[in-house]
C-alpha cells in the first residue's frame, strides 16, 4: 500500500498525517493564523527524529481547499517543496470532502444522510458542497460552491429522498440564515474540521487510478477566484 504524508491547512486547524504502509500517525492542532510559522515544527514533531526521505513516501497529499486563501497556499507550497525534494508526485484532495469523512469517522447517522459540508469564508459567505451518504457510500452531489448563507440552494434532485439533513463545518454556524427549506432540515455541527488522516484513503485510491500529479501542477481550489496564485507551470518556471 502507498506510503503517504498528508497536509491540510485550509481551516483554523493545522493537520498532518503519515501512513507508513501499516499504521497511521497524525497530529491535528487548532491554531488560527499560525500555520506558516509552525507547519514544519509540527512536522518535525510528527516525524520524531526521522527525515521525510526515511519514510520512502510514494506521494505528498495536500488539502486543495476551498478554504483560507493563505492556508491553501501554505499547504500547496509545502507539498510542492517536499515532493520536489523527494522526486515523488502530489495528490490534491478536497477539504470539503475530507471534512465529511472526518465527521463520519466520529459520528454515525444510520444508513443514509444528506450532508452539507461548509466552511466559513469570512466574507459573509460560505464555501459548501453537498454529499449523500447511502449504504455506507459517500457521493458528491455537484461541485463546490461559494454563496451567502441566505442564497444556498439544496442539491438538485435530492429534495424528495427524505434523508436526515446535516450541515458540518464552520459554515454550519450560519444554518439559521439559510432559506427555510434548508434551515428547517439541516442539523448544524459547526465544530467539525478536516483532519489529514481522512485524506489518506481517497489519496490511495487516486494513486491506484494513476491520478498522482507532477508537483508543478499542484494548485489550490479557491472556488471564488485564483487571483494571486499560479502554478509553476502557469508561471513558465521549472523546479
From TrEMBL:
Domain (Gcp-like): residue spans on this chain: 32-158
Gene Ontology cellular component terms for the protein in this record: cytosol
GO biological process, one term: tRNA threonylcarbamoyladenosine modification
Protein name, UniProt field: tRNA threonylcarbamoyladenosine biosynthesis protein TsaB
Signal peptide boundaries: none
Transmembrane segments: none
Family in the record: Belongs to the KAE1 / TsaD family. TsaB subfamily.
Pfam families named among the record's database cross-references: TsaD
